[in-house]
Write a structure and sequence with these properties.
The protein is 34% helix and 32% strand. It has 4 helices and 4 strands. Strands 1-2-3-4 form a 4-stranded antiparallel β-sheet.
Length: 136
């Protein structure tokens, strides 16, 4: 009898199913905030980040969209690698804030870190990012 040796395709399918089942809960403040952080800081997709924003955060995103109008960011754009971790969080039933530390690695440049304070509030039954601030 031949021993079972998983092939690359079956390993890929398993990982895709496993990771798909571990998606963020967008009914939580942290889930919404991390979707926002991913789209704003990791993927540089301001229009997608805008979907999670209200108030001051929405105004800031709209201004960033205006300032970057005409600059195409696509698959051919050289983007830095961004990783982040949660440093601190404060949550109540209607408001929450999360402090993240991001590590940015760009080609031909030294690695650096930034901190992002992201605030969220509950609007009806949905959490939305209400403000965000960057620190060195």
């Amino acid at each position: 009898m031949k021993p079972f040796v998983p092939n690359i395709a079956s390993a890929f399918v398993f990982c895709a199913l496993f990771l798909g089942a571990c998606g963020r809960d967008l009914n939580t403040a942290r889930g919404v905030v991390e979707e926002f952080v991913d789209h704003h800081y990791v993927y540089f997709d301001l229009r997608k980040a805008k979907q999670y924003s209200i108030g001051v955060a929405l105004e800031k995103i709209n201004e960033e969209i205006r300032l970057t109008e005409g600059q195409t960011i696509d698959a051919s754009t050289r983007k830095p690698k961004v990783h982040y971790r949660l440093v601190e969080r404060k949550e109540s039933p209607q408001r929450a804030s999360f402090l993240y530390e991001g590590t940015i690695q760009a080609e031909d440049a030294p690695e650096f870190t930034r901190r992002w304070l992201v605030s969220a509030r509950k609007e009806g039954n949905q959490w939305r990012v209400s403000n965000f601030t960057e620190y060195d």
